[in-house]
Design goal:
Blueprint (H helix, E strand, L loop, with lengths): L6 E6 L11 H12 L2 E5 L6 H7 L1 E4 L2 E4 L13 H10 L1 H4 L5 E6 L4 H4 L6 E5 L10 H4 L4 E2 L15 E2 L8 H4 L19 E9 L6 H10 L3 E9 L3 H13 L3 E5 L3 H9 L3 E4 L13 H8 L4 E4 L12 E3 L2 H12 L5 H13 L2 H13 L2
Parallel strand pairs: 1-2, 1-5, 2-4, 5-6, 6-7, 7-8, 9-10, 9-12, 10-11, 12-13, 13-14
Antiparallel strand pairs: 3-4
Amino acid sequence: MPWPYKKTIIISRCFWDYYLHVFQKDYAYELKNEYGVEVTWVDRPTRNPMLWFKERRRIVDGITVLRPWSLSNEYEKFNLYDRKIFTLQISKDLQSKHNTALWSICCMHPWLSKNKAFNFKIYWPGDHFDPKEEYLDYKDYDLVMPWVGLNDIPSEFAGKRFLSSTCAGLEFMNFQTLNTFPQAFREASQFSKRISYIGGLSYERFDFELMEKLASSMSNCVFLLGVKSDGLESTEKAKAKLLKNNKNIRIFEDLNYQELAELVSISDLGIIPYRIHGQNLRICPNKFFEYSALCKMTVTTAIPSMKRYSPPAKIAHTHEEFVKLTNNTLDCPLVKDQLVGLRKIAEEASAKKTIPKLVNVLNNN
């Protein structure tokens, strides 16, 4: 079944050239390559006129990538002038004889959701989505696709709803088994068991106390953390303490996406030791799909979005349960059916599998 909008403009908070995997780009490529859609990707705006002149419009693999200029580099802070100048900069891309869709990713564009040049408007929220507080800003979209909390969207919302997820990138999905142990992680080979965590490192999100308990109670394991710190003082202090107190923790910062896949590939298990508060209540960690793509089991804290993936994901409600589940999982080698099941989860979350489900929702009146 075809994608009904031959022209699709994706406006994202995520930069096209971000050095790690921007999984939403998979949707742009899938629409362009498999559905023949004319795709325009719009990066976050810049206030730097020189940068704007350099990056204002380019073609990447047949996809138009725009970098608009504005007085604010945050869509939420756009004033009336910013909105007008932004709309002017995409006006060329709005001039299409085809049905045109707006797809807002991790940011809303209320003034565009009212623009009659768009035949359909999609809002794909990010981690901070508050369906009740933000309702007036997204009420004119035709489809909202959060990661969690469909029932929290007010009943007066007249559009469609779709429960979405993140996904693993091609570096994980197409990963080839390594013949030798990666040199960068050679030291980890001396440990009998290896446990990985990949993703951001933030005191607000990451449970350092839980990580401390894991490391101290599982001295025969090495914990390989492929992270990017937010650089805040609270995070850096907690990170330094973690390394000082635990000789079985290794932190690798600013690995590229291929290197993160290599790190996970040499691990026996993936973990998501997140605090259960704030923005974590709305996230859908793509690391779960990255672990699953490489057939690694996941032990996680009780993040709401993970309930629909358990089993196979193992959810701990206390620190003690997390340690116990981690030990138990390491002691139970996976059988073939489990390996196939993990891989299938990653495949089902991909853009290739998700877009047909979206099309069904779009065509279901």
